[in-house]
């Protein structure tokens, strides 16, 4: 267990600090992929129930983010990009963050169970538990494979959205799960390449820190290939139409070009990390666009 941060002169937390605990930028992607999973399902869901399910996904993601920051307050204090978060900045005590995270998790699961269905509740619970216990507590401080295995935590939302609408799971949401799971390593390793000093200072064994840039770049290229396969699979399998298929071709071609630029580059060329930053930013846009294309294909094609 990380040591408790002493903040005798801590300022009282306000609503913005509690909102920051939920990692709202990460939550946006989680909510969007969950919504797309719901809209891609063959069974329509009542708008009020759909809103409730998405609210539960958002609250569950927020709970996981809060518990992550509760546990990693000591690491966040050592990294420049996270030092301003409520706990390391001394605006909140760890017990408040713990209670907030547990309360959000309990409320989201209870609401999902009573308002939606058991299947969606079980998958939501699995996503929260996986992120907190498997990724945050077990993997992150122990292995450079933390992102590879831990990527499953962020891949659950399409399954949850689909299950909320249908009450079960099918091949398409499993492929969407695989897409996010395989997208996570190149996405986060691109980030890790230009913030590796932060991770090194905090003692987090991210791949660039323990294996070096060359290995990380190669792995980005390698993981991009099965990610593309997972993204393309719905089209030839008859689970999506041409609108999605051609959109996926274009989006994957750009992703591959950027990933290869990073994979074949040496750090000696320059230290600006422009290609890495470009891949990281595009990877976020890519996920929004490819999931949006799936929904457009289902509803408008």
From TrEMBL:
Location of the protein in the cell: Cell membrane
GO BP: heme O biosynthetic process
EC number(s) given by UniProt: 2.5.1.141
Example of a GO MF term: protoheme IX farnesyltransferase activity
Highest taxon of source: Bacteria
Reactions catalysed: heme b + (2E,6E)-farnesyl diphosphate + H2O = Fe(II)-heme o + diphosphate
InterPro entries xref list: Protohaem_IX_farnesylTrfase, UbiA_prenyltransferase, UbiA_prenylTrfase_CS, UbiA_sf
Topology versus the membrane: Multi-pass membrane protein
Keywords associated with the record: Cell membrane, Heme biosynthesis, Membrane, Transferase, Transmembrane, Transmembrane helix
Enzyme category, top tier: transferase
Positions of transmembrane segments: 26-45, 51-71, 97-116, 122-139, 146-165, 171-195, 220-237, 243-263, 284-300
Pathway terms, separated by semicolons: Porphyrin-containing compound metabolism; heme O biosynthesis; heme O from protoheme: step 1/1
One GO CC annotation: plasma membrane
One Pfam family matching this protein: UbiA
Annotated family: Belongs to the UbiA prenyltransferase family. Protoheme IX farnesyltransferase subfamily.
Database matches in PANTHER family: 4-HYDROXYBENZOATE SOLANESYLTRANSFERASE, PROTOHEME IX FARNESYLTRANSFERASE, MITOCHONDRIAL
Note: Carbon 2 of the heme B porphyrin ring is defined according to the Fischer nomenclature.
Function: Converts heme B (protoheme IX) to heme O by substitution of the vinyl group on carbon 2 of heme B porphyrin ring with a hydroxyethyl farnesyl side group.
Protein name: Protoheme IX farnesyltransferase
Encoding gene, per UniProt annotation: ctaB
């Amino acid at each position: 267990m990380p040591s408790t941060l002493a903040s005798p002169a801590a300022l009282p937390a306000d609503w913005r600090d509690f909102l920051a605990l939920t990692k709202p930028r990460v939550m946006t992607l989680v909510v969007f992929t969950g919504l797309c999973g719901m809209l891609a399902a063959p069974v329509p869901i009542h708008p009020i129930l759909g809103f409730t399910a998405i609210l539960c996904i958002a609250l569950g993601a927020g709970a996981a983010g809060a518990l992550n920051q509760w546990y990693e307050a000591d690491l966040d204090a050592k990294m420049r990009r996270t030092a301003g978060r409520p706990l390391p900045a001394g605006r909140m005590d760890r017990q408040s963050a713990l209670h907030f995270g547990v309360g959000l998790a309990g409320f989201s699961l209870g609401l999902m169970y009573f308002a939606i269905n058991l299947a969606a509740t079980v998958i939501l619970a699995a996503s929260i538990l996986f992120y907190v216990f498997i990724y945050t507590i077990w993997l992150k401080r122990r292995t450079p494979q933390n992102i590879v295995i831990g990527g499953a935590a962020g891949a659950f939302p399409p399954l949850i959205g689909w299950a909320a609408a249908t009450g079960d799971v099918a091949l398409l949401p499993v492929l969407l799960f695989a897409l996010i799971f395989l997208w996570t390593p190149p996405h986060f390793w691109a980030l890790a390449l230009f913030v590796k000093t932060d991770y090194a200072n905090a003692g987090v064994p991210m791949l660039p820190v323990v294996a070096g840039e060359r290995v990380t770049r190669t792995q980005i290229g390698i993981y991009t290939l099965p990610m593309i396969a997972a993204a393309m699979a719905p089209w030839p399998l008859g689970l999506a139409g041409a609108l999605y298929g051609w959109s996926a071709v274009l989006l994957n071609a750009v992703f591959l070009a950027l990933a290869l630029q990073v994979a074949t580059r040496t750090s000696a060329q320059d230290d600006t990390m422009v290609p890495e930053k470009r891949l990281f930013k595009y990877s976020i846009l890519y996920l929004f666009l490819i999931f949006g294309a799936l929904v457009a294909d289902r509803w408008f094609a």
